[in-house]
């Protein structure tokens, strides 16, 4: 249940807001059925929910890849509905899809340069920021991204997105397909990114781990926000545990 009041929605610190969004891919078929979400400056927002609930679709709707049929999506107070990727990048939206999120034939350095093709002047400054979080990448800039492990590629993908100094970072299942140790590392890195001040919206199948690190979370079910609360509140909510955390999480609470 979205608990935000209208006054909070217009506050200056709201970076991303979805208001009653109905959206889908095919004519007459909506995947998002009235989704609401708010991400405020500096927040780490988690989105969990069953397979097929529309989590990836929600991120794609912010990044202009889904037809938004009603409702509104704003970034820094302005509607972004209908804008294409290049305009969204200018508005400060960075999206890391779940798969195919690096250019495998390019080096790490070239991948990072691709991340700020719209503003190459800030390369040195942004490289410093990114390698402050992902130090190991800074030592291997000439290595081809295709030769990296899954976890390392995920780091390159997140780094590429961070190069442009985004207002909001959208991450679709950063821990997917990684070994348990690498999954832990992915969550720590997402925390580090957020602690460095980046407003982040993360979709995760690993629901418990996600709620443990996020400021606030949303449970998405059948294209609607079914529950909203702090990570801690959702982790301890018997209904959320019963319906969504029983089999989804791999960690102990
Ligand atoms: N490109 C697409 N075209 C048509 N339907 C899609 C497409 N991508 C996803 N869907 C459908 O949208 C629904 C929600 O998918 P998705 O957002 O990927 O869910 P989640 O990420 O929560 O598992 C599913 O029924 C899926 O089949
Ligand atoms: Mg998904």
Automatic annotation (TrEMBL):
InterPro entries associated with the record: AAA+_ATPase, ABC_transporter-like_ATP-bd, ABC_transporter-like_CS, BCAA_Transport_ATP-bd_LivF, P-loop_NTPase
Alphabetized Pfam families for the sequence: ABC_tran
Domain ABC transporter positions? 16-247
This chain belongs to which protein, by name?
A: ABC transporter ATP-binding protein
State one molecular function term (GO).
Answer: ATP binding
Keywords on record? Amino-acid transport, ATP-binding, Nucleotide-binding, Transport
Starting at the broadest rank, the lineage of the source organism is:
Bacteria, Bacillati, Actinomycetota, Actinomycetes, Micrococcales
What is the similarity comment for this entry?
Belongs to the ABC transporter superfamily.
